[in-house]
Amino acid sequence: MNTVVLAGLVFLLVVGGVVALVVRAVRGRDRQDEDGGLDLIPYLLLALFVGAAGFSLAALARASLTPDRLIGRPTGELAGALAGLVVAAPIAYFLGRRQARRRKSYPETPGWPVYLAIIELVFLIAFLAAVAQVAGFLGGDGDRADWTDLVIYGGIVVFHWWAERRERPMGDIGELPRLVGSGVALVALTIGLIGTLEWLFSIAYDALSGLDDIPDPAVAIALTVAGAAIWAWRWLPAWDEEPTVLRNFYVGFVTAFSLTMAIGAGVTMIAKLLTFAFGEGGPAGDHFDGLPLAMAFFIAGAGLWNHHSHRLGPGRTGARRGYEYAMAAAGLGVLVGSTTALVEAAFTPTLAGTNSSATLITIACAVIASGWVWLTFWRKVQAAPRAEEARAFSRRVYLIGMAIVLGLTAAGSLIAVLVVVFRTVLGEVEGGAGSLRVPVTLTLTAGLATWHLFDQIRADGAGRERTASRPFAVTVICSHPGTLGTRFPEEATVRVLYRGDDAGMIDDEMASAIVAAVDGRSSLVWVDESGFRLAAARES
Amino acid sequence: MEEDRRLPGWVLPVVGIVAVVALVLIGLNRSPDQFDPGSPEGAVQSYIAALVAGDFETAATFWAEDDCLPASIEPTEGAPDISATLVSVDGDDAEATVVIGITDNTSDPLNGLYQYQEWFTLVKGEGGWKVRQPSWPYYDQVCEASP
Questions:
Q1: Which of A64, A78, A89 sits opposite B16 (nearest CB)?
Q2: Does the distance separating the beta carbons of B27 and A77 come in below 8 Å?
Q3: Which residue from A minimizes the CA distance to B83?
């Protein structure tokens, strides 16, 4: 009994201490921050306690309501869930009320969207996992169906959607919750769509030539339906503001990833066909049994790419740049890796006969496809006006990031080459040429790529200096210049002539496009309802 | 207008407390589901019920005799104090695997397993489904497990 009393006292002390610390911390910030500050720590604590309360409530509901109890009352589960709720729920409630009051005074603090994004990430994933579990059970392939998880996790997500609509997050990262929700739902939709399409193609393939294993569609269909519904709710409605850095990153990344997925699947199918054409495939039924999955990947990737590529925006938007540089990076990285693999496959000695042409054909397809991807997207970005392009953040990330990664790869490979060379020179290893194939190839390919990247970094720097040293004048005829004046470099002298009507408004997107088109040269710009036109002017 | 549509501050905690109390009451008043004793899950239910009740002789009647059996019918730590749920049943007419989720009511939650799963392999015999090589709760074994 004494132990119970002592445990109770310790429990109260711990909970009281945590509450006191939280209250003291947030009161201290009240006094310090006249503008509300970041307000991150209270919101992170709120997310922590809401998470603990949510998962405890789900455990409580599972213990009380889900079927198939074999023996005994669920006192252990109830005790654990109640303990979590008793600690987390009151703190979450009072912290939530306190933050709601602060939002009235400081509506633009980034803590609110960060909190909503964390909750959306955690509980949307939990909800979709519950969807998959229940669907698997209903499809006869799952262990159990904790349907209460659907209700609790779904309820928490919907409650926070409602809170978000009531008090819309503002500021630079106000879009974060919607983007996180769109991303999580898109992943579920993609997994579900691939599974569903694979199931359909497998049925068709089975009818044609027989298939050992047709996947169970229940989970895939459920994820498709749930993912599509949530994605449509979070992504498709019109956005209030112009694209932010976050949305540009999201659109660029998803577009690049989906195209990579489609190209990867396409290359796999082409390699399968070529391998079979060269007589290396064996029986057709067995050789092509991976086609249903490859076709599913291809269609899902192509569909996602088609949708998101139309949302990259016209002109050199941040999203388009991100997409093109991400594709160039993927192409260059795979080109270096697959070229090395091809050399290794081509020159590896065999015990009998020749090297497998199936392997060679597959890797050669990867080399050709990645080379084509890199060249295509590198030419696209090089065709853009250089003055603004050289300053673009995504270009710097691509050039510097890839230069570091590939440079380190080349340096590591060179070390491996030199180790073998020195050991041979010192007489410890004989006939070590075979072990040099991969490191030598990797040193050459990664080294060449690194040299190319550093060359571009140097060229961009020289271009920036040249552009920076030359003043130019731009005359813009429009209804309202928007942020255009702030987007030109310091060397520009911008003169605005007002049209006197509303047909020539300049939004952020058009401002970027105008700056890119002017490209550091003296110009006349005319804006009307059809967009903008540009004419060269005499240099000042 | 927006302000008028907001719920009073007490509504959410009251609804939450009522929901939690209701769930606790439902949970405390739940009795175990009754599975068909002729089914694998029903056999496991009867077996565990006998163990929890301390009726080890009855529990031992659920052991398949063609396998490695414990030295004593009494578990090393006596009758388990647990509650259990059925997780999954898999198998055919001759052999089945039953997975159950166990919550140990006596374990110290800060020092060891609290909730875990156990696998029971059952074979169909003359007297119904029998447990092969009982490994839960812990018994002192007299022989190594045979394949």
A1: A89
A2: yes
A3: A72
| A434: pLDDT strictly greater than 80 | no
| A76 contact B CB<8A | yes
* A474 and A463 within one domain: no
Residues A504 and A454 in one domain: no
Domain boundary among A430, A452, A467: A467
* pLDDT over 70 at B146, yes or no: no
- How far apart (Å, rounded) are the C-alpha atoms in residues A500 and A8? 76
* Distance to chain B for A218, nearest Cα, Å: 18
Going along chain B from its start, the domains and CATH numbers come out as 33-132 (3.10.450.50)
Confidence of residue A323 (pLDDT cuts 50, 70, 90): very high
d(CA B82, CA B60): 18
Contact between chains at A73 and B23 (C-beta distance less than 8 A): no
Residues A80 and B76: their CA atoms lie apart, in Å, by 27
Q: Kindly state whether A73 is in contact with chain B, defined as any CB-CB distance less than 8 angstroms.
A: yes
Say if A118 falls within a structural domain.
no
B32 touches chain A (CB under 8 A): yes
Q: Are residues A454 and A476 in the same domain?
A: no
Residues A105 and A177 occupy one common structural domain: no
Q: How confident is the model over A494-517, as a mean pLDDT?
A: 84
**A41 and A156 inside one domain:** no
Would residue A284 count as lying in a domain?
no
Q: Chain B contact for A348, CB < 8 A?
A: no
Q: Are residues A416 and A461 in the same domain?
A: yes
Asked whether residue A320 falls in the same domain as residue A462, the answer is: yes
Per-residue confidence (pLDDT) for residue A4, from 0 to 100: 46
Q: How many CB atoms lie within 10 A of CB B59?
A: 24
Let me know if residue A416 belongs to a domain: yes
Lowest mean pLDDT among A30-39, A151-160, A295-304: A30-39
Question: Is A399 within the bounds of a domain?
Answer: yes
Query: How many angstroms separate the CA of residue B116 from the nearest CA in chain A?
Result: 12
Confidence check: pLDDT of A354 > 80: no
Rounded CA-CA distance A134/A128 in Å is: 10
Closest B-chain CA to A104: B3
Element (DSSP H or E) covering residue A301: helix A291-309
Q: Contact A263/A297 with Cβ under 8 angstroms?
A: no
- Given a cut of 80, whether residue A535 has pLDDT beyond it is yes
Of A75, A109, A143, which one is at a domain's C-terminal end? A109
B99 close contact with A: CB closer than 8 A: yes
Please compute the mean of the pLDDT values over residues A297-308 and round it to a whole number: 96
Regarding beta strands B95-104 and B115-125, do their DSSP bridges make them parallel or antiparallel, or are they unpaired? antiparallel
Neighbouring residues of A227: CB distance < 8 A, sequence distance ≥ 6: A128, A185, A186, A187, A188, A189, A190, A191, A192, A193
pTM assigned to the model:
0.77
Does the beta carbon of B85 lie under 8 angstroms from any beta carbon of chain A?
A: yes
CB contact A118 to B (< 8 Å): no
Tell me which H or E stretch contains B98.
strand B95-104
Confidence class of residue A462 from pLDDT cuts 50, 70 and 90?
confident
Q: Kindly state whether residues A507 and A366 are assigned to the same domain.
A: no
A60, A71, A97 ranked by CB distance to B20: nearest: A60
Whole domain around residue A401: which residue ranges?
Answer: 315-467
| Count of CA atoms in the C-beta half-sphere (13 A) of B88 | 15
Residue type, A290: G
Distance CA A18, CA A6 (A): 18
Q: How confident is the model at residue A298 (pLDDT cuts 50, 70, 90)?
A: very high
Q: What is the mean pLDDT of chain A?
A: 85
Closest to A25 in 3D by CA, of A74, A121, A95: A95
Quote the number of domains for chain A. Answer: 4
